[in-house]
Amino acid sequence: MAAHRFSRRWLLVAAGAAGLVGASAVTLPAAAIGPVDPAALRDRILGSDPPYVGLAESTGRLGLPQIPQLESMIALLTGTTRVRAYVAGAQRWRADEINPAGERDTYHLGGVEFVWDFGANQLTSVLGQAPVRLLRAGDMLPPDLARRLLQLAPTDTVTALPPRRIAGRTGAGLRLTPADPDTLIGPIDVWADPVTALPLRVEVSARTGAPLLTTEFLEISDGPPAEAALVPPRPVGAGIVTSNAADLGGALRVLNPPPPPDRLAGRDRRPNPEGTVDLPGVGVYGSGLAGFVLIPANRDIAERAIDGATVAGGVAIAVSAPLRAARVATPLLSVAARSRGRSGELLVGSVAPEVLEQAVLELPVRRRP
């Protein structure tokens, strides 16, 4: 039963562009560094994965309404989060979300992830990969966030920024200006160690205004962590359960969702990444920084999402009864929901809310037999 509860939290996900974060950097004078080619720095950031141990803090001010089953993701995008990272490489790392109640630690060892929940005294092993998943605290680490965003816009213009002092180091800066007119995301600023190309700070702004999402290291040291730091705990008396990505497909099939359309709102559905488990009814649409995801939901979640959007100043979408639908937008992220019979859908993405409204109107209407 514990594994089943854990799996259901992973059924609702954010779009590829919803990994974003706002805080204030240390305003010490930056040490002098030589001229930096921003395009070369971007290539180095994307091509390097140096080992490190560090403590980072992210802050978001998106103003999202509470949506059932997305509470943990919304907390990451609307509050302050501290994460301690132990990174030996792309396939061997650990990220600890630190909060007043304790910790929630994620370990990635080869193809298996382990989640240690201190408060619940439970270790969960997660086997396999789904094409989409819930946003988590480790995604807010400066290296992870910087690489994800830079990968989504590999040919967009980058310009140099003045160096900045971060965690006792001087970071070389670049600004990526998104070219896609459909994305809500504006300038993306990254500062990285000029020697290792490890991103130290990331700021994400809307098309106008100050940064709304920021993450930066407070402490950082080079080199791999101690081996003991990468071993998941197995204390006496702790619950130990296993969850498989394939289980998510079974949980979604209970909702009897129709297949995701090949095209929505003028955007093609992306193929699932190789090696991932197909999830019924789930589709990712668009490319680059202007993408969105379609996720099946039960009626209760869809109805509560619609009500939450309405309370937060959202707009009702004109659909035929007994269908209900609404959308709501922040400067960086839009959310839409539709209720139909015993089930419904959520759509989340870094696109204008009108795009998600059009997608809702194009969704097929199919009731459970």
* CATH class bucket of the domain at 256-362: Alpha Beta
Low-confidence stretches: 1-28
CATH topology of the domain at 256-362: Protein Transport Mog1p, Chain A
Give me the Rg, rounded: 21 Å
Largest sheet: 12 strands, mixed
- Average pLDDT figure: 84
Helicity level: 10-25%
In total, the number of strands is: 20
Structural class comes to alpha+beta
**Spatial order of the strands forming the largest sheet:** 7-8-9-10-11-1-2-3-4-5-6-12
Number of helices: 7
Shape from CA axes? Answer: globular
User: Which band does the percent of strand residues land in?
Assistant: 35-45%
Notable characteristics:
alpha+beta, Protein Transport Mog1p, Chain A, globular, 7 helices, 369 residues, 19% helix, disordered N terminus, 12-stranded mixed sheet
